[in-house]
Amino acid sequence: MDYLQIALIFLILLLSIFLAITGIQVFFILRDLKKALDKFNAILQTGESIAENIEKPVAVVSNLATSAEAAVVSGAAKALNKILKPKKKRFYKRTL
Question: pTM of the prediction?
């Protein structure tokens, strides 16, 4: 065999080994990334459940305040209606 052929075979084997090592490291990196994303997803799920638990009482209080506000506004409108609209006076006498 020629020295050139031996050198090429050696380089091919060396590159194959480096490529295999790089592939294994990429596999480990992707596995760690998956673990990190799973943890991040769990944190987001916990935050979402906390937000939902906080949202329920706030929504109830908001609805209560809105309904109370509507009742107060309608009562105030009725009172203002009575004050601003006096009874109409008749221009004629009512006879039996």
Answer: 0.52
